[in-house]
Structure formats: C-alpha cells, structure tokens
Fold DNA metabolism protein.
Amino acid sequence: MNASTTLIYDSSFNGFLTAVFVAFDEKISVADIQKNGRCQNGLFSETETIFTHVEKAKRVWNGIRNKSHNAISNVYFAFLSETEGVEMLLFDYIQKLMRTQNGKYLDYSDSTVLHISQLARKVGREKHRMEAFVRFQLTKDNIYFANIEPDFDVLPLISKHFRDRYADQQWLIYDVKRKYGIYYNLDHVEMVSLNLKDIHHNKIHKSDAFVNGEYEYQTLWNDYFKSTGILSRINPKLHTQHVPKRYWKYLSEKKEAV
C-alpha cells in the first residue's frame, strides 16, 4: 500500500494550486494539504513541502476554468474563506470537477460541492459589504486611508472595484485582522504590509495622521445622516441585518453610535 502524503504549501493561492498540480502530476495519495507553519503530522502520512510554481498554478487554474467559469470562482472565493480544512475540501471538489464531462453539472447533492458553493456565496456577500462599507479618511500625505475588518480575506476581491471607482486618487485599504493592505499609487494596486500600532477608527480620538478637515467632514456627515433619518420608520432589526454592528466602528456615519 502506498503511503499517503501531507502536502505543505506557503499559504498563497498559487501555492495551493501548485500543490494540486503536484498531487495530480505525481499521482500522490493525498492525506492532507496544509499551510506552512500550521502543519500537523499525521500518524500514517509523510510530508512533502511544495514550492510555489506560477506556471504549474496557471495550468490548474486554466484547467478548472475550462471546465467551468463558475467553478473557478467558487474555488477562489472558498479558498479566501480561510475555513479550517478548506484545502482538502477544494482538492476533493477539483477532483470531482475534473471527472465530469461538463463542469456546469456538478452534483449539488454532494456535500463537498454544496459546502464549497456555500462558502463561495458567503465570501461573495462579504465582498459586496466591504465595497459598500469602506470609509476613507484623508491623510496628511494626501492618501485616502481606510480600515476594514472582514470576516474573510476579501482584499484581493475588492481591489478592482476601488481602482475603477477612485482611479484619480491614491488610496490604501488596510485589513486590521490580517495586517496587510492594498495600495493604489495612481498606476496600479499592490499589496503592502504595515506595522500599525494604533488603529484609528473613532473620530473622538483624533490622530495627527489625518488632515484637520477630515474630522470636520465626519461631523458634517454624522449630522446629515441623523437629519435624514425618519424616526417613525426606523427598524433597528432590519437595519442591523443590512449593516451589522461589527462594522459600525469603521463607518463615519456610525462612529457616534459605537
């Protein structure tokens, strides 16, 4: 009996796709696929470290996309969910996809296929929330800065939206939870790492990093938001369904309510 193998990758999406390529190419009996630094050795499995290879990753990407555009979206979105054990779920999903004659007709009664689809939808909803809830503040360096704290790693998914919408401004969106951001320099978007000691999200505690007019604008926006509300039509339960409270501390119009 061939020993099963746990594949260790660098936690990137290309690294994961490379691991999938190696598993298929070498016909490896895969026990698990785990991120480097989080691996746990199985009792009856060997380990193999996979080094990211962009061309191999592209071959897997293209293979999935050729089967189904919907499937490649599901794979990428589900990967960004960061769900525990999502790598093996995705590996199983990709195997089933490759066995089909037409990727459009994956069996949604299959628990793996259904789970990946559900994860992808959750990440998609979070993407749309972040596109709606980002609130920029102008820094003294003339960069529009925003904090977010999404449930899933959606920064790679929202960069195009903000690049298209704010093409004439420098901006930086920072993920507080994952400690990295995306920065647009008027030419392209790049990922950046920041060492922020303080996360500024409440106008009551002012920061020297932002222009003075920024806080005046936030006060004006708060006043406008309150003045346009019709008290008799306020539905707190419905409101929090659309704007969950966990996002309020990053919303200019909600800072006084935090």
DSSP finds eight helices and eight strands in the chain. Helices lie at 13-25, 54-67, 69-79, 86-99, 111-133, 155-165, 212-228, 236-242.
